[in-house]
């Protein structure tokens, strides 16, 4: 008769190993999700606009990485540097030519949702025309890295590479926001456009540049995301937007630090769900939004609003 205690011990060890893999893997992916969702929060912070085309910008970044590699064999890591200025310019142009008219309308919030939904559909249609409806992916050796071995576990190389990309990108963004005169003007605009303009801040120019940074973060996330998500397809944008929206709502709309904390928690929870409840893991973003709205509508790091 087998020893019950002897059989239980390997089972417990296996559970602990899976838990360790899920938590540490979730931390690595959480850093990527922070960069991935930050672009959406940046655009919201610039002018209180929810960019429904955010996921489609991530898709564009994935296609850019695929095209640069397939045509010129340029590494997706190098592609980050190449696509970033184009993405920032695109965001600046969108803000400069489209959003001022929205802000002068009677209901700018609703019209902005319609506008960016339309932009999302345009990007999806153009991606389908140019790249076709099928998913595109890159070979694993496009980024020649080996797996990361830690505490007896092996983690996919792209996980720690994505984290190594996200850390300096987020670091530069936070330095720009909190340690530079430009960041001071941005935070003034985020607090109150009217008061910032009264203080002599060119709110339109500041918002345009910050808008561009938000677009840039989304496209940069896409160049790495082609590996994280297993490929890129024209219709992936909606699901990516929902995931990013869930993270920024959980962390607090307009709060960059909230996005980082929420993204790390989201990464860990998602990995735990994929390890222990894989059939339910796709519900994590939706459950996160619902629970946040019910239990803490202002988000993790948001301040509760007083009702007059």
UniProtKB/TrEMBL annotation:
<comment type="similarity">
    <text>Belongs to the binding-protein-dependent transport system permease family. LivHM subfamily.</text>
</comment>
<dbReference type="Pfam" id="PF02653">
    <property type="entry name" value="BPD_transp_2"/>
</dbReference>
<feature type="transmembrane region" description="Helical">
    <location>
        <begin position="283"/>
        <end position="301"/>
    </location>
</feature>
<feature type="transmembrane region" description="Helical">
    <location>
        <begin position="72"/>
        <end position="98"/>
    </location>
</feature>
<feature type="transmembrane region" description="Helical">
    <location>
        <begin position="209"/>
        <end position="229"/>
    </location>
</feature>
<feature type="transmembrane region" description="Helical">
    <location>
        <begin position="157"/>
        <end position="178"/>
    </location>
</feature>
<feature type="transmembrane region" description="Helical">
    <location>
        <begin position="12"/>
        <end position="37"/>
    </location>
</feature>
<keyword id="KW-0472">Membrane</keyword>
<keyword id="KW-0813">Transport</keyword>
<keyword id="KW-0812">Transmembrane</keyword>
<keyword id="KW-1003">Cell membrane</keyword>
<dbReference type="InterPro" id="IPR001851">
    <property type="entry name" value="ABC_transp_permease"/>
</dbReference>
<protein>
    <submittedName>
        <fullName>Branched-chain amino acid ABC transporter permease</fullName>
    </submittedName>
</protein>
<keyword id="KW-0029">Amino-acid transport</keyword>
<keyword id="KW-1133">Transmembrane helix</keyword>
<feature type="transmembrane region" description="Helical">
    <location>
        <begin position="110"/>
        <end position="131"/>
    </location>
</feature>
<feature type="transmembrane region" description="Helical">
    <location>
        <begin position="49"/>
        <end position="66"/>
    </location>
</feature>
<dbReference type="InterPro" id="IPR052157">
    <property type="entry name" value="BCAA_transport_permease"/>
</dbReference>
